[in-house]
Amino acid sequence: MSAPLERPDYWTQAITELAAADPVMARLIALYPDVNLRTRGDAFHTLARSIVGQQISVKAADSVWNKLATFLGDVTSRAVLGSSVDKLRACGLSQRKVEYLSDLARHHHEGRLDPSAWHDWDDEAVIKELVSIRGIGRWTAEMFLIFYLARPDVLPLDDIGLIRGIALHYHQDERKSKAELRELATLWQPWSSVATWYLWRSLDPVPVEY
């Protein structure tokens, strides 16, 4: 079974400091007082769910994931490798995502996906290691940093939800350049992951849990 979800130990400090530094964050934090980021101690599950969620909406990703979990019973590397391509595609996965998920499952099943040492690595080192696996790009690696390693200061600038949330709450719905987004995000350091999470909530109150 998948590992239980846990609240990062820095959460209270993070929301206190974000609210003090940024009035927009203060408002968003007040809107969602009873929910928080929850991390899962299962590296394969987090990466698999991130692959499923690539380039589609949260709602669509949840639908595909639920079909996959129902079909497999539990989304494990063994279960993925024991299934056919056609059956995985019937859950709503594209051909390419089936290939990515299968490659990840092989890495995990063969012991080549071992995050036990990664807790001591800096963010960029973890990203470099992960993107060497087929189908894992920077966005997926950043979701892993947030939802598995619980890194507090990740700013996923390729994330559609983050871009939309910043435009909505800071720029009258106008999308800005990455350089301008980075400049704004200096307000949030060292809690960019937490700020990102609240911007996600402003668009979809139901938390995604990779």
UniProtKB/TrEMBL annotation:
<dbReference type="InterPro" id="IPR003265">
    <property type="entry name" value="HhH-GPD_domain"/>
</dbReference>
<dbReference type="GO" id="GO:0032131">
    <property type="term" value="F:alkylated DNA binding"/>
</dbReference>
<dbReference type="InterPro" id="IPR011257">
    <property type="entry name" value="DNA_glycosylase"/>
</dbReference>
<keyword id="KW-0234">DNA repair</keyword>
<dbReference type="GO" id="GO:0008725">
    <property type="term" value="F:DNA-3-methyladenine glycosylase activity"/>
</dbReference>
<dbReference type="Pfam" id="PF00730">
    <property type="entry name" value="HhH-GPD"/>
</dbReference>
<dbReference type="InterPro" id="IPR051912">
    <property type="entry name" value="Alkylbase_DNA_Glycosylase/TA"/>
</dbReference>
<keyword id="KW-0227">DNA damage</keyword>
<comment type="similarity">
    <text>Belongs to the alkylbase DNA glycosidase AlkA family.</text>
</comment>
<dbReference type="GO" id="GO:0043916">
    <property type="term" value="F:DNA-7-methylguanine glycosylase activity"/>
</dbReference>
<dbReference type="GO" id="GO:0032993">
    <property type="term" value="C:protein-DNA complex"/>
</dbReference>
<dbReference type="GO" id="GO:0006285">
    <property type="term" value="P:base-excision repair, AP site formation"/>
</dbReference>
<dbReference type="GO" id="GO:0005737">
    <property type="term" value="C:cytoplasm"/>
</dbReference>
<dbReference type="GO" id="GO:0006307">
    <property type="term" value="P:DNA alkylation repair"/>
</dbReference>
<protein>
    <recommendedName>
        <fullName>DNA-3-methyladenine glycosylase II</fullName>
        <ecNumber>3.2.2.21</ecNumber>
    </recommendedName>
</protein>
<feature type="domain" description="HhH-GPD">
    <location>
        <begin position="52"/>
        <end position="204"/>
    </location>
</feature>
